[in-house]
Design goal:
386 residues; alpha+beta; Immunoglobulin-like; 4 domains; 7 helices; 24% strand
């Protein structure tokens, strides 16, 4: 009741404030409520000039000063009492004692006093028109049940039943629940999204989810990709789109280059193996001729040359194949073991970035790669741009 009276007093609804303070005083006769009652009577007297409010203000101030000797609102009560007494009629006889201070019982009106701290709230009673935004509604009603509706932009509507009591002020306060804000993150499929340092979801491109409104620090991360972050302001009941496309890391780009060289080396190893088999075929043809007794000295020379070339190409094929295997292992390791960078949520607004944060501000590209093969051996090269 005291809170309702305070809200009404702040809104200059002094008659409502007076009824609320008087009902509160009847429930719990605290000294501070006497001062509030006196202040309400004084304001009403100032507005409408009704001497009854002046007299009641004087009585309430006197009763307050009788109970509270020091501290509290004593100085304010003394000053107000002097001002009000100056306009009051003089006592009937000199030296006569003033009447004992009393406080009238609460004003007998059946009222609903409806309020909400929700920003922009509008209130309707029994299907009537909505109030102005942020208004507190006071209405004289009949005793019994009444239907109240609270609505505000960005908040869920609320319908409330209120029971009005005969000859009493009934305060009703209702705060609304905020609609969730929706965030649609446009990022790579499988990226992990965290909000203010907490994991929220793993989403694909176009994924969206509900969050509390306000300023939020969003981070998108994915293995093998540069982590990005952004601060967004989310509004209740509205969808915000946030593009956070993730580019690959330098390590992943290099891993693809290494795997590309490994694949080229594997192909070269296959070519060398084919050449070695061809030379083996030449040597076997000469051996068959030797078995038939039709071999010449120049055939023996050709056989020896083919055997040496076969051995050289076989060794080269094995070496290149082994190198391809090593490169494949290295490339796969770099590809698979590339965890995303973790960005810690800032602890204050001054630490929040104004633009997306990225790591690895450079890239690597494989410009060219090649193999050289001859009877003397194998050469390989790769040219990278960083």
């Amino acid at each position: 009741m005291f809170e309702a009276g305070g809200k009404a007093y702040d809104r200059a609804q002094y008659d409502v404030a007076l009824q609320a303070f008087q009902q509160a005083y009847e429930l719990v006769p605290k000294d501070g409520l006497l001062f509030s009652i006196a202040q309400s009577h004084r304001r009403l007297h100032t507005i409408n000039g009704d001497v009854r409010h002046r007299d009641q203000a004087i009585a309430a101030y006197r009763l307050y000063l009788d109970r509270v000797k020091t501290g509290g609102r004593v100085s304010e009560a003394v000053k107000a009492l002097e001002e009000l007494s100056a306009g009051a009629p003089a006592p009937a006889a000199a030296g006569a004692d003033p009447p004992p201070p009393t406080v009238l019982p609460a004003e007998k009106k059946t009222r609903l006093y409806v309020s909400s701290s929700t920003p922009g709230v509008q209130i309707s009673i029994d299907g009537g028109p909505l109030s102005e935004p942020n208004a507190t509604v006071t209405k004289e009603v009949t005793a019994g049940n009444h239907k109240l509706r609270f609505t505000a932009p960005g908040y869920l509507d609320k319908n409330v039943d209120a029971d009005a009591l005969k000859d009493e002020l009934v305060p009703v306060s209702q705060d609304l629940v905020e609609k969730p804000a929706l965030l649609a993150v446009e990022t790579n499929s499988g990226a992990e999204i965290s909000v203010d340092g907490r994991f929220v979801a793993e989403v694909g491109a176009g994924g969206s989810f509900a969050l509390p409104s306000g300023k939020r620090f969003i981070v998108a991360s994915l293995s093998g990709h540069q982590t990005r972050s952004q601060t967004v302001e989310l509004e209740p009941g509205k969808t915000s789109k946030l593009p956070l496309e993730l580019s690959t890391t330098v390590q992943r780009d290099v891993s693809f280059a290494v795997l590309g060289v490994s694949g080229a080396a594997l192909i070269a190893s296959g070519v060398l193996t084919g050449i070695a088999f061809a030379k083996q075929g030449e040597a076997e043809d000469i051996l068959e001729q030797q078995g038939a007794g039709n071999i010449l000295d120049e055939d023996i020379t050709t056989y020896e040359k083919a055997s040496k070339q076969r051995d050289a190409f076989a060794i080269a094929a094995g070496s290149v194949g082994a190198g391809a295997g090593v490169l494949a292992i290295v490339g796969l390791g770099m590809l698979l073991i590339d965890p995303p960078e973790r960005i810690t949520a800032p602890t204050s607004d001054s630490e929040r970035p104004d633009a997306p944060i990225t790591k690895d501000p450079f890239r690597v590209e494989l410009e060219a790669a090649g193999l050289g093969v001859d009877a003397q051996g194998v050469s390989a090269f790769a040219r990278l741009r960083f």
